[in-house]
Design goal:
Number of helices: 15
Low-confidence stretches: 59-65
Strand content: 5-15%
Strand order of the largest sheet: 3-2-1-4-5-6-7
Mean pLDDT: 87
Helix content: 40-55%
Structural class: alpha/beta
Number of strands: 13
Radius of gyration: 21 Å
CATH topology of the largest domain: Rossmann fold
CATH architecture of the largest domain: 3-Layer(aba) Sandwich
Length: 377
């Protein structure tokens, strides 16, 4: 079976979508011919000519033009990277015709979903849209293109799409985790070696260590985590990532945690896995996450998780992987962190994460592709 994965920013940007596309390709390639079509050329991508970062003013954000997307059926087209996706789609057509895939798996919403619909019409190639944006209006647009199957990352996302786009086939297949890389066994990184990379140089690195890894943006609500940790009598908060909110979070951390917080830039999987093994608890206070790969990675590394009490996280963490609470209540949040530090979770987090291994996820994608091709015949 020949499988084309559409993920234009693989190789130039590291996010949950890009990691998922790479891992899926790696796990499918042992049995099938699978290629990622990206704007970046590498050993594991096929390059599609285009522009990675268009140089024009961000008028969409400045004038809030994205609200006009509600007036346009099928695509979420008024956005800053629309030109990039248009050029990618234009150049992709001939390249895909040459590759002759049996199935297309589209990891990107908006214009590419409509492209896949057109390519199916002209070349009789079925396609799957993967809802990497979670519970958003953009994903409703993606499902409206009527893919042969829409993949929701959680049962909550599945219900969301089924309610708004009746009749479309929606299957639940989560993102996965590499259980070999993210494991309780393996080398650790001395926390002090990470302090050298931190923006705060006077950090007093006392255990226990509370870790969070994500983009440093408002939507992640990391200020709630900083405030909760400030209520604990001891412990160091480690924030891994980068983003527009870093200065605001750094100022808040300096003010209320003083030398009990460090910031580390985004790490590769190997270094991040070592850091997971060096810490005691993982926490992510965001809501409406598309999936939350870091939650699964942390549990696979043996860390209990303290996160927002919502149906999506409840499905991921279960009853063995950690504690879910109302993170907007500082006292309740702090108590949950303390409980997680003191409680013996045994191998519960690891057992929960094993349900999301990439081997299992890849098998689900293969079954879905084969089912679609059978229906096509």
């Amino acid at each position: 079976m020949k499988i084309a994965i559409l993920a234009p920013y693989v190789g130039s940007f590291v996010g949950g979508l890009e990691v998922a596309a790479l891992e899926l390709r790696k796990n499918l390639s042992s049995l099938h011919e699978c290629k990622i079509f990206s704007l970046t050329e590498s050993d594991w991508t096929t390059r599609v000519p285009g522009i990675k970062h268009p140089k024009f003013p961000r008028l969409v954000t400045k004038f809030r033009l994205n609200y006009l997307n509600h007036l346009i059926p099928y695509v979420y087209v008024i956005k800053n990277n629309a030109l990039t996706e248009f050029l990618y789609s234009y150049n992709l057509y001939a390249i895909l015709q040459h590759f002759k895939p049996d199935v297309i798996i589209n990891f990107t919403y908006s214009i590419l979903a409509l492209f896949c619909k057109y390519f199916r019409f002209k070349n009789n190639v079925p396609f799957i849209n993967v809802g990497q944006s979670g519970i958003t209006y953009m994903e409703v647009k993606s499902a409206m293109t009527r893919p042969d199957a829409y993949v929701a990352l959680s049962p909550v996302a599945q219900q969301f799409i089924q309610k708004r786009v009746p009749g479309v086939r929606v299957e639940v297949i989560p993102n996965g985790v590499d259980l070999d890389i993210f494991s309780p066994e393996g080398p650790q990184f001395p926390i002090g070696s990470f302090a050298a990379k931190s923006a705060i140089t006077n950090s007093n690195l006392n255990p226990p260590y509370i870790l969070s890894a994500s983009r440093l943006i408002r939507a992640k609500r990391l200020d709630l985590l900083i405030k909760a940790v400030s209520r604990l009598k001891k412990g160091t908060l480690i924030l891994v990532g980068h983003g527009e909110a870093k200065k605001r979070l750094s100022d808040l951390g300096n003010k209320i945690l003083k030398n009990r917080i460090i910031f580390i830039d985004t790490l590769n999987h190997e270094d991040l896995s070592k850091l997971y093994r060096s810490c005691d608890v993982f926490s992510l206070p965001s809501k409406n996450e598309a999936f939350g790969n870091v939650i699964i990675e942390a549990m696979a590394s043996g860390l209990p998780v303290v996160a927002t009490n919502d149906p999506g996280f409840e499905w991921m963490v279960g009853g063995r992987g950690g504690i879910l609470v109302d993170v907007t209540d500082e006292e309740v949040y702090a108590d949950a962190l303390q409980e997680a530090l003191e409680k013996n979770f045994d191998d519960g987090p690891r057992k929960q994460a094993q349900k999301f291994s990439w081997e299992i996820v890849a098998e689900e994608y293969i079954k879905l592709c084969e089912d679609i091709l059978t229906d096509k015949k």
